[in-house]
Specification:
The chain is α/β, with parallel strands linked by helices. It has one domain (3-140): Rossmann fold (3-Layer(aba) Sandwich). It has 5 helices and 7 strands, in the order αβαββββαβαβα. It has helices at residues 3-16, 32-42, 84-101, 115-123, 134-140; strands at 19-23, 46-50, 58-59, 62-63, 77-80, 105-108, 127-129. A hairpin with a 2-residue loop joins β3 and β4. The longest helix has 18 residues, at 84-101. The relative contact order is 0.16.
Length: 153
């Protein structure tokens, strides 16, 4: 896939997804997942935080759920803020829940790659992004209203 194809894929995802289940969401403002969740909410996405250690609590006004299967449907995308190894188990759970929950995209955050999980998800018909952050990509691809276009040098 060319970089332009990758950019087109990411742009398409970020322009069509409306609800994101964020696995590994943290209530700590200093954590990247908190900042990404806040950004996504500010830009119109509904974010459902998933963190078994904080289930029943609120992060940025949203109720935290212990697992993907307990989160209310529908959600289009699963954003994984966990280790590359843990991404495999999370991806397999998402594959099993895809029809029930409406999942079409698995997104693994920066530094998170699991090629086996990616292959399994793609074989199940899901789109997979690895080692990227939706907040950074949203800004980089100038998806912000009235944002300047990226420099085309």
């Amino acid at each position: 896939m060319t970089s332009q194809d990758q950019d087109d894929l990411i742009s398409g995802i970020l322009q069509t997804v409306t609800t994101i289940a964020m696995v590994g969401a943290s209530p700590k403002p200093t954590r990247p997942s908190y900042r990404v969740m806040a950004f996504l909410q500010q830009h119109g996405f509904r974010v459902i935080p998933i963190n078994p250690g904080h289930a029943g609590e609120k992060i940025l006004g949203a109720t935290v759920y212990a697992s993907l299967d307990q989160a209310p449907a529908p959600f289009d995308m699963v954003d994984i803020f966990r280790s590359s190894e843990a991404a495999g188990e999370i991806t397999r759970a998402a594959i099993q829940l895809a029809d029930q929950k409406g999942i079409t995209v698995i997104w693994m955050q920066q530094g998170v790659r699991n090629d086996r999980a990616k292959a399994e998800a793609e074989a199940a018909g899901l789109v997979v992004i690895q080692d990227h952050c939706p907040k950074i990509e949203y800004q980089r691809l100038a998806l912000l209203p009235d944002a300047p276009l990226p420099d085309a040098r």
